[in-house]
Each structure stands twice: as structure tokens, then as C-alpha cells.
Amino acid sequence: MKVTIDGQSIDVEPGTTILQAARMIGGDLVPPAMCYYSKLKGSGGKCRCCLVEVSKGSEADPRPMPKLMASCVTGCMDGMEVNSKSSARVTEARKSVTEFLLINHPLDCPICDQAGECDLQNLSFEHGNPKSRFIEEKRTFEPEDIGPNIQLHMNRCILCQRCVQVADQLTDNRVHGVLDRGDHANISTGISKAIDNEFSGNMIDVCPVGALTDKTFRFKSRVWFNKPFNAHRECTTPGCCGKTTVWMFGGEIQRVTGRKDEYHEVEEFICNSCRFDHKNVNDWVIEGPREFEKDSVINQNNYTQKLEKVEIDTEKTILLGRDIDRKKISMAAIPLTTNDKKS
Ligand code: SF4
Ligand code: FES
């Protein structure tokens, strides 16, 4: 089947969605996705970020589709023509969806651990309005403790339901889900049961915002001060690939996550033992620096070349007493093994 998106054509298998076809083409035309996750069955269709305009339904029925379609759940048809980035109507709709998502989402990026790798931050950067028109009070929830490893900030949740799908598909006993309806809908364990399944940590990786964060990394560092390296270990947990990204600050591993691709989806899921219990460098075989998108904030201070000293261009008084930290950010004392890929 042939499908054309923003003037670029590609042949796809029957059953391919417009979003998947767009990802095969790649580049700017790929719609943003806050709830679809290719590794989770049944994901998508909830956030409406991925709306596109279908200007020609198919070769057999060339009529345009009257409404904008969610590309993550709309299948391609032979001869279909789609407008994504090229459509002013789509740009306007994405702007509205972003505004809608930000109605209740707190603007607490300066203290949020997700800042720097948050899909909602990226979406706001692309499509956000600098001013909010929302004058009502934002929806807030009482803090709930959902266990020893994962911090739930319900106020930040956009109800994409990816975490529920992780619990359904990777663990054998889901203890949390979406409770209540409408404006009251929230992610909760209902009876404050701890989420302690061996694969529950993957909920942190799939959460597009800072609603689920790693308690072992909480407030330790901003992600752009950490250096991500690919690493692996012989993991004995059934189902765990043992291949991770370790986030280092100097010689210290501060955080372990799954390896994410350009769409911020993990390549493979990892177990809680790799994620939370192995923070010693000797636990891992370090493969080399992780490749990131060029414009990512995480890619600031490119470290594929060794830096003797990191200079942060800000008022001197703010940095007083931060010399040790600067050395750790530079990682000048640590030998650099590259995997021959430039970030
Ligand atoms: S907690 Fe995160 S992953 Fe779960 S529904 Fe909310 S935004 Fe989505
Ligand atoms: S990514 Fe398509 S509706 Fe959310």
C-alpha cells in the first residue's frame, strides 16, 4: 500500500497506522505522541496530540476525511494522502491540544525531575502558547505513597494510561489504574497498595511527564548534568535484557534507565533490580557514550570529547562553591571509551 505524508510517499504493510508510516519516513513530519507507545499493546487514542489531516482517503474512495484524525489509531489505506506539519489546521489543533493538556499540568519544571526529558515540555516548546488563558484553579490531588521506588505526582499526570498498560502487560498483578471519571479521573492504587512488581520501574520510563519518577534519583541532579552511557550486565531476572543507560555524575552512577530511541521509547524493558539496586560502576560493563538527538538539552556540553573543565555562563556568585561539581560534570578524570558514534 502506498501512503503519502506531507508529499513524501512510502510503501507500507496493511495494518500500518499513519503514525507508524510517518515514523518510517522520519523527520519533521512525524506527529508528536504523548500516549501511543509502540511497545505497549492498545496504547494511543487518548491524548489527541498526533492529529493529522487526511486530504485523500484512498485510491478507491478519494474523499477527504472531514475531521482531523488521531494518526496513532488510524490505519493507512492504499493511495491515502495525509498532511501533518504542512497543514495549518493541524498546527492549530496541536496548539489547542497542548493548551488543553497544560490546563491542569503544574508549571513546576524547575523542580521536576523530568525536566530536560519531558515530552510535554517538548510539545509546549513546539506548539505551546506563552500565555495561559486558564483562570480557574488547577486540579490538585492529595499525595499518595505508591511504594518504595516510584514517586507519584498525580498533579502532573496527563492520563495517557501508558503506566497502566505496563502494569497490565509486563507484571502479573496490576494494583493500580485510572480511578473516577472526567475531571476527577486519576491514577491511583485505590487502596494504597505498594507497586513492587519486578518490572514496575518501567512505568517511570514510559511516563511522558514527571508524574512517575524514580525515588532513588529524586532531586539528586538535573538530567543535563548527568552523562548517559550504554551499559549492560548479566541479569538473571527472567525477561530482563540487562541492557541499560547509566546516568553518571563524575564516577558515580546516579540513575539507571532503559535505552530510549529517538521517540523516547525504551528499546527493551528492564527489571527493578537493574534499575534500582545496581548503582555501582563495577556492576556494569560500560559500552560507551549514549547517542542523543542533537537539539536535546541532555546533549548540552557534548562529552564525546573530554573536557578539562565545564564553564557555565552565569553569574559568578551563583556558582561559588561548585568547583567539585564542575569537575564531576567535566569527568576529566575518567577515561572515555567511545562507540565510534558522535552525539
Ligand atoms: S502517571 Fe504518567 S504514564 Fe501514568 S497515566 Fe499519568 S502521565 Fe501517563
Ligand atoms: S499519541 Fe495519538 S492520541 Fe495520543
List the helices and strands and how they pair.
Blueprint: E1 2-5, E2 8-11, H1 18-25, E3 51-56, E4 69-70, E5 80-83, H2 88-104, H3 119-127, E6 150-152, H4 162-170, E7 177-179, E8 186-188, H5 202-206, E9 212-214, E10 227-232, E11 243-249, E12 252-257, H6 272-277, E13 285-289, H7 323-330
Parallel strand pairs: 1-5
Antiparallel strand pairs: 1-2, 3-4, 3-5, 6-9, 7-8, 10-11, 10-13, 11-12
Helix pairs in contact: 2-3
FE2/S2 (inorganic) cluster is lined by residues 33-36, 44-50, 70, 72.
GO molecular function: 2 iron, 2 sulfur cluster binding; 4 iron, 4 sulfur cluster binding; metal ion binding; oxidoreductase activity
Keywords: 2Fe-2S, 4Fe-4S, Iron, Iron-sulfur, Membrane, Metal-binding, NAD, Translocase
Domain 2Fe-2S ferredoxin-type: 1-88
Question: What this model shows, in words?
Answer:
This protein is 18% helix and 16% strand. Among the domains are: 94 residues, Roll (Ubiquitin-like (UB roll)), CATH 3.10.20.740; 108 residues, no CATH class. The chain has 343 residues and is α+β, with helices and mostly antiparallel strands. A five-stranded mixed β-sheet has the order 2-1-5-3-4, sandwiched between helices. The model has no long low-confidence stretch (mean pLDDT 87). β7 and β8 form a beta hairpin. The structure holds iron/sulfur cluster and FE2/S2 (inorganic) cluster. Keywords: 2Fe-2S, 4Fe-4S, Iron, Iron-sulfur, Membrane, Metal-binding, NAD, Translocase. Belongs to the complex I 75 kDa subunit family. It holds the Pfam family Fer2_4. One of its GO terms (molecular function) is oxidoreductase activity.
